[in-house]
Amino acid sequence: MKINGTPTRTIWPAKDGWAVEIIDQTRLPHELVNVRLESLADAAHAIKAMLVRGAPLIGATAAYGMALAARANSSDLALTVAYNILHATRPTAINLKWALDQMITALGKVPEDQRMAAAYARAAEICDEDVAINSAIGDNGATLIQAAWESARRARGADRVNVLTHCNAGWLATVDWGTAIAPIYKAHDAGIPVHVWVDETRPRNQGASLTARELNWHGVPHTVIADNTGGHLMQHGMVDLCIVGTDRVTSNGDVCNKIGTYLKALAAKDNAVPFYVALPSPTIDWSVADGIKEIPIEERDAAEQTHMTGKAADGSIVSVQVTPDGSPAGNWGFDVTPARLVSGLITERGICAASPEGLRGLFPERNG
Q: At the N or C end, where does the chain have fewer CB atoms within 10 A?
């Protein structure tokens, strides 16, 4: 995607050819700051502290983390240690484990003295594959927005199609294009008058700070709303469809995404608003069937709930406490939306029902 007209990815090799650079997403939307990763520890910190976030980008960063680890020591033991360190950073997003497994498989096939080069090559491939996958997701999902636009225009003479999304599943959550926002970009670029309702997404405000930021960069009309506004908009016919991303999808179609997604799906079901989930195939966890029982839900620092960071009147970036002294806070990062509430899954191979049969239809290699 483009920032001020310049094509930009969220992670890229530094000019020296061995370090890696990322956008520090904790500094957005008010500051655009790049950070240089030079070690395994740097990559692990970037993931855990959410300088990078979004399941596909977490996976890509972990892949480069393994490359940085191999540069320092490419022995079997060192790579196993690196794998475990990176795997422990974020427990919910399955792309993390997928990318690490891809790296271990690739490096296990070559002699130790060739592993560093192989690691950088495979990490670059993972990034390029992510871009291609997300572009295809955008193409497939744009057909839904086109259909919703035509329906809204016929039914009520609408002058735009309204899409509601939750959290950030745009190019900032991936290497490029995004998952849930990719169809919006494709539709917008094709001339469809799409407008996006952007949930603020407490407690880290990824919608207000990241989704709004990138939609603003791309020129897509949007409105930031409080997390609890979506149901009201749906009741009044102001949402034509919902598209969200996900950090893990089970083999039966359950969807684990940012906390609050489940409530949006319930409201959509009650108001007959289609609720779609966009995902790349590495986000499917074929080993898990029951998302509520089996997916580990990350619990994060309570300070994310008790404090907020923003820009003061003088332009300075400040953090303020919004809860009373002494009040404890809970901070679950994700929830699970049961497959029965999902209208369909948008993947790089097409759109399918959120069901075992739907998923296996698109991924027949998983049958049996």
A: C
For residue 218, give its domain range: 136-366
Residue 206 is assigned to a ligand binding site: yes
Tell me what pLDDT residue 322 has: 95
Residues 244 and 157 in one domain: yes
For 253-268, give the DSSP string.
--EEEETTHHHHHHHH
34 and 183 together in one domain? no
| CATH number of the domain residue 272 falls in | 3.40.50.10470
139 is catalytic: no
What is the structure's pLDDT at 368? 67
163 and 117 in a common domain: no
65 is in an annotated binding site: no
Q: Which of 42, 199, 247, 335 is catalytic?
A: 247
Dump strand ranges (E) for 144-192: 161-165
Q: Which of 112-116, 155-159, 200-204, 359-363 has the lowest mean pLDDT?
A: 155-159
User: Is 204 annotated among the ligand-binding residues?
Assistant: no
